[in-house]
Amino acid sequence: MGLKETPPDERPRERLLRHGTAVLSDAELLAVLLQTGTQGQSVLELSRELLRDGWAALSRRTPAELMRVRGMGTAKAALLAAALEVGHRVERARLNVVHGSRDVVRLVSDLRDRDQEEFRVILLNTKGMVMGMETVFRGGLDRVEVFPREIFRPAVARSAASVVVAHNHPSGDPTPSRQDLALTRRLEECGELMGIPVLDHVIVGRSRHVSVHQGVLTELT
User: Are 172 and 207 in contact (CB under 8 A)?
Assistant: First the structure.
């Protein structure tokens, strides 16, 4: 049944206003966001098509890829891409204190869905609260070139007390390479010299994560 055949008070937007967001299915929530379908296709059908492989797969699509879906023009693609990014940022904002590596994993959980390497630095104050997070490098499918000066530049600019660094392995296997281990040691040495310690280096895979700190590897599931 399309929206036109659905009684007005049972349509997703009206139900949301009466009962809240929790009563809606994933497709209904997306339909509220997209508002309209296209000729021969309701907005609910479009939403189900977009969510065929789940939210994680949808969040990996670029605006250009979204626009290749029938019924997705520039306005809808931009709106959906922005909404998904807002979701990521809201989730990160909730994690405002880093107590350990598991908090870091939750903070950068979106990295597991990236198809190229990204290297991020998380800036912390003296109480371990997150002051900000920046992507300092993006690489290819299997390599990202990182320079310590780029890692510590935002830390110095924001007067961070310490930092945590994280990057992903698009292959899905978070096992550190020799380059990863060497980079961790180098960053820790630079941090000691600058008085901005590197508390951890987390490598993110598809379903596993590894913490690399002071030469010690800890696997996080």
Answer: yes
Give the Cα separation of 155 and 143 in Å (integer). 24
Mean pLDDT by 10 residues, the chain (221 residues): 62 88 90 88 91 87 91 93 85 72 84 87 90 84 70 93 93 89 91 94 88 60 47
Surface-to-core class of residue 208, CB atoms within 10 Å of its CB (0-12 exposed, 13-18 middle, 19+ buried) = middle
Beta carbons of 135 and 166 less than 8 angstroms apart: no
CA 87 – CA 82 distance, rounded (Å): 9
Partners of 219 in beta bridges: 210
Q: Are 189 and 163 in contact (CB under 8 A)?
A: no
pTM above 0.85, yes or no: no
